[in-house]
Design goal:
The structure is a single chain. This protein has 507 residues and is an all-alpha fold. 81% of the residues lie in helices and 0% in strands. The chain is built from 24 helices and no strands. α6 packs antiparallel against α11, α16 packs antiparallel against α23 and α19 packs antiparallel against α23.
Amino acid sequence: MKGTTAMTTANTTAASTNVAADATEALENGANAMTNIATNTIETIEAAESRGFSSRFPLNSSFIFTFGALGGMLFGFDTGIISGASPLIESDFGLSVSQTGFITSSVLIGSCAGALSIGALSDKFGRKKLLIVSAILFLIGSGMCATATGFLMMVAARIILGLAVGAASALTPAYLAELAPKERRGSLSTLFQLMITFGILLAYASNLGFLGHNLLGARDWRWMLGSALVPAALLLIGGIMLPESPRYLVNKGDERNAFKVLTLIRKDVDQAQVQLELDEIKAVAAQDTKGGVRELFRIARPALIAAIGIMLFQQLVGINSVIYFLPQVFIKGFGFPEADAIWVSVGIGVVNFVSTIVATMIMDKFPRKGMLIFGSIVMTVSLAILAVMNFVGDVAVLAVPTMILIAFYILGFAISWGPIAWVLIGEIFPLSVRGIGSSFGSAANWLGNFIVSQFFLVLLDAFGNNVGGPFAIFGVFAALSIPFVLRFVPETKGKSLEEIEKEISHR
């Protein structure tokens, strides 16, 4: 018996070592691919621009903001699609549980790397060019996922997708915030979170639609993962057509094109008001020093603390335990059949999406801090009741009440922490370090995501598959988020980015 245990332990250790080695090699390949693609793409775009090529078309604001937020849809789609595809991949490739788990979480490794690396590049080369780079990475990663022949290729593909997701999560909030007028910046920036929830919902629908349909001789999971090519192509087309951020253009001394972009996206005001906005941007840009990590910590420390804290709390309240593992919660915790559990996740996805639409409509009518605190209270109360109920009640009759409480928890998150966290990291950093600051905030989000995704099932098992245990821990973090917001998060509603920059610099 001891010999069998030792052999099992040795096999597990060897499997973990092999997975780690494969992951390291895949991460190096993915990072090299991102560097090469980014460099070559930027050189191509700059060469085209030097020959007089212009990608600016007479677009309306709806097109600009919708396509500008499209990276969020791919973000949601590529993080949600694996929930339905991973059991099929495991069976098809004959993978171990640890290998399947690593395929799921490898996107988070790429996301953290992508978020950290993209900020400095976007401050140097511009938001538009790096959006195009992220679209190309989405295309490459989605294509590799759909055609993967084994574990290593799938991990490499998921890491490349992660690089794209991380890049989009850092780029898009800053880009939308820099384009939006101060009166509507909250609602327009919330389009990013709305697209994330829409992408998650589309991923669930794709899983259900392709399940069991091996079209043209290709397995169903390949169609699930390959369907991401469509929105990735749309992001590439939109990225080519979108204008550059006027604030980035001013920071690089291109005031003429900055005025043109502002005129394009401010069609409801006259040119005198456009010139006033441009003058305000120029005045603040003239005071900014050269961006970089050192400057980020020197001139934007309060903003950095707020961004990292709010992004960690956004994940530590447990949202991705619902996105990634809700079917398993109802299968393991309440004995649901697999098909019924997937339908529960679809229903919660609908609640998430509809609630985010509501958030988009009300975002600019209420203070950001007030909405965050309201959301924290709703989540804390919902999770506390859910935890107590599952600890002291009869689990056999608690499935429906649990669904209802999770729906209220999702509602509280979706109208507050879901969108506002992304809005804030696009607002609170000074222009000179906005790209790299958003990168740090986004990387903190992916770190929190990784912690939740890695330990949720462990916690669920530790509490004997009683969902009250892990959700009680998430409730504690929801409660702790309230004093953090009161102490560290600035109020930004109705203020221009330049006004926010001046206020935070004096904190």
